[in-house]
Amino acid sequence: MTTQGRVWVFGDNIDTDGIIPARYLTTFDAEELGAHCMEDVDPEFPSKVKPGDILVAGKNFGCGSSREHAVLALKGAGIAAVLAESFARIFFRNAINTGLLVLEADGVRSILDAGDTVRVDAKSGTIVNETRGRSLTAKPVPAFIQEILDAGGLMEYAKKKLQTDAR
Asked: What is the pTM of this model?
């Protein structure tokens, strides 16, 4: 899986309330959640983010409560991938289960600036800043997680696996 997009940069310890404020947790509609994604951290984000954009963050991204709404909001906003120094474990797993590419990469904020264009190869872990010619390697996605992501998330993967096994 390779993706390319415009970069948005955030800091450390962005919690799930920062990703999608609790006042919007009355729905599971990704598009509606996406309309409010990150608005308490950056009020302009929901109106300026575009499909295919890539969010870059520091340490402990997705900390806080274990709500799936946070991943749905990012997907609903059009985020194609999240690159961070580290993730809260439950957020990381929710992202995989929902089919959102997440990669851990030490120093990722040192090679990417807001507005840059980045190309990400999940299989190899390669992150290339196409604007500035910088690159680094993230922890690559294991094959079984790549299969889940390629299927669009855990539920789609399970459906596909059941159909294959039934033959």
From this structure: 0.94
